[in-house]
Design brief:
The structure is a single chain. This protein has 120 residues and is mainly α. The protein contains 4 helices and 2 strands. It has helices spanning 2-32, 50-63, 67-76, 86-97; strands at 41-44, 108-111.
């Protein structure tokens, strides 16, 4: 139980920061929409980056398993069955910044392979 409490306590700062960014994005979109300024955010899930690989390696060491097992465990929880590629996140950013998304503002786009599906 103690390790679960420690783990949850470690997640609070990141979770609080994410929630703040979501609220700020929505508030700025409402405040500046009349001036033609669009504000959107992307909330990426597990994305295959060096940072993620380092985190999975640390997780594997802590659990006494191989990094490949830690990766497989992480992927097994994602309904799409894979991690995001950095380019996929970049493509979404480019779309939201483009004129093709000219009527899109005030959203926080979740890109986590349906790990945490959202209905708005």
């Amino acid at each position: 139980m103690h390790s679960q409490v420690v783990l949850l306590a470690r997640l609070f700062p990141g979770g609080a920061a994410n929630a703040a960014l979501m609220l700020v994005s929505a508030g700025l979109a409402a405040a500046y929409g009349a001036q033609g300024i669009r504000v959107n955010a992307i909330n990426p899930g597990l994305t295959l980056t060096g940072r993620l690989q380092e985190g999975l390696a640390a997780n594997a060491r802590a659990k006494g398993i191989r990094p490949e097992e830690a990766m497989a465990q992480a992927v097994s929880r994602i309904p799409l069955g894979r991690l995001a590629q950095p380019e996929e996140i970049a493509h979404a950013v480019l779309f939201l910044a483009s004129s093709k998304a000219s009527y899109v503002t005030g959203i926080c786009m979740s890109m986590d392979g349906a790990l945490n599906p959202i209905v708005v």
